[in-house]
Amino acid sequence: NNLSTLGSMLTIMFIFMFLYSIIELIMSKRKIIFIIKSNNNEWKNNWPIQKHSNIELNFMFNKN
Known about the structure:
The protein is mostly helical. The chain has 3 helices and no strands.
């Protein structure tokens, strides 16, 4: 009996985390599009600094 309630609680928590991760993914995609629009100089040069852009993306992901 105790195990079944634990399993149902675990599945409910998993569903909540799944929905939350989907929402975070959508919001971060919007933020990434905003970064690309604001960072127009790097895309015009056609050689963006890879490390710099990765640090920016990690910062935006961590800011949530």
